[in-house]
Design a protein that fits this description.
It is built from four helices and eight strands, in the order ββααββββββαα. It is α+β, with helices and mostly antiparallel strands. InterPro entries: START-like_dom_sf (IPR023393).
Length: about 160
């Protein structure tokens, strides 16, 4: 998985790219159907899948609505993620490439924690699509948080 982080005007932009051994229809299904979403991100469910639709983030004591902000069936799904934005884009040239992008404004809490979570859950997505679903590696989260805390601190210095 390749990654890029940058800060522009106090906003953090994060990109991850995953090469997936599956067709784009299979990848799309793992982003847009509850049955497949549950194999890699159990807290997210589809509310309404459309340009004006929404996803649901299921927490123990509440359910948050995340409006869809960009939708191209079979290709692109972007939604609000608290005060930030998350986008999945599928490209199929030589194999299937999934690009994950995130935009986190300054007021978004704990950038490093959020990015650490995505950096761990995206390989789970790839594994699930390729037929080998894995449990979330929560023991790796503190190390990933520290990695991104340091990377963000370095970015702020440049």
């Amino acid at each position: 998985m390749n990654e890029q982080l940058k800060i522009v005007d106090e906003t953090l932009y994060v990109d991850f790219w995953l090469e997936i051994e599956a067709d784009k229809e299979s990848v799309w299904a793992f982003l847009t159907t509850d049955e497949r979403l549950s194999l890699w991100f159990t807290e997210i469910q589809i509310g309404e899948l459309s340009e004006t639709g929404y996803l649901k983030f299921i927490l123990p004591n509440e359910t948050l609505t995340m409006p869809i902000i960009a939708f191209e069936s079979g290709k692109k799904l972007a939604f609000q993620w608290a005060s930030g934005e998350v986008c999945f884009e599928i490209n199929e040239e030589q194999g299937t490439l999934l690009k994950f992008s995130e935009k986190l404004p300054p007021e978004f809490p704990a950038w490093h924690r959020d990015i650490a979570g995505w950096s761990l859950v995206l390989p789970q997505l790839k594994s699930a699509i390729e037929g080998n679903p894995l449990p979330f590696p929560k023991e790796q989260h503190p190390l990933a948080e520290e990695k991104y805390r340091q990377e963000i601190a370095q970015l702020r210095l440049t």
